[in-house]
Amino acid sequence: MLSPPTLARFALSLATLLLGACATTPSGRSQLLLVSDQQMNQMGLTAFEQMKANDKVSVVPAKSVYAKCVVDALVAELPTEWQRLPWEVQAFAIQEPNAFALPGGKVGLNTGLLRVAETQDQLAAVLGHEIGHVVYRHAGERVSQQQLTQVGLSLAEAYAGRNASSSQVGLLMAALGAGAQVGVLLPFSRQHESEADLYGQALMAKAGFDPEAAAQLWRNMNAASDKTGRPPALLSTHPNPEARIARLADHAPQLRPDYERARAAGKRPNCRD
């Protein structure tokens, strides 16, 4: 059990750390980052290598080539610091429609996604979204949130231990854990998804992909999803599907000038499955 002076020093040290760990997203939102880009990039590389070693990679090279064509067009529109990453793309022979991008520029997609993303523009919507997570440093933010949550729960446990029985402390920790999960971690995840949606849609327009395809992609994804057992919206880490589609559809006309400028400048991706 921590003494009050020790607890106070610990809290002061934590506050000092937090003050030095503030960053800003491309949209101007303040975020907390307790891990460096270098650390996250190494985590991403390690995870990607493990996936390639343990999961079923596609034996059809054209699948990865197709995805890489889309990724290359999107990456060319990123700020220079993100273009410099060693971007790598791998298709996995998995039927669940999904894709991901890890810190360090590692992109993967399941071949089942290609049944849902019917055109290169729709695939660009998915992969632009995933690249958005990388540019917004969402993975680092999530890791930092989890680290901070654990520190906060430890402090609460230390304080509660001075005033309650062990059973009461257990109940308090269970309540705080649930509160942290529902009240902090999951809502941030929904915010991350929304940020990645809009960033990815803007990125695809600048690369010469039709931004209207983003809404259609999620219509396709929604239609392909098995809705039985879907968690309530409050506990979901993803935005409400209908709201997501409406937001992307509403945002597309604003991006039309960027798309038309890109096409006029010769940015006409020709990626084929």
TrEMBL record:
Gene3D superfamilies membership: Metalloproteases ('zincins'), catalytic domain (3.30.2010.10)
Pfam family, one: Peptidase_M48
Peptidase M48 domain sequence ranges: 68-249
Name of protein: M48 family metallopeptidase
Superkingdom of this protein's organism: Bacteria
Gene Ontology cellular component annotations, sorted alphabetically: membrane
N-terminal signal peptide: 1-23
Membrane-traversing stretches: none
Originating organism: Pseudomarimonas arenosa
Region (Disordered): 252-273
InterPro entries: Mito/Outer_Membr_Metalloprot, Peptidase_M48
Any one GO MF annotation of this record: metalloendopeptidase activity
Manner of cofactor binding, per the entry note: Binds 1 zinc ion per subunit.
Keyword terms, alphabetized: Hydrolase, Metal-binding, Metalloprotease, Protease, Signal, Zinc
Family: Belongs to the peptidase M48 family.
Cofactor dependence: Zn(2+)
Alphabetical GO biological process terms: proteolysis involved in protein catabolic process
CDD domains hit by this protein: M48C_Oma1_like
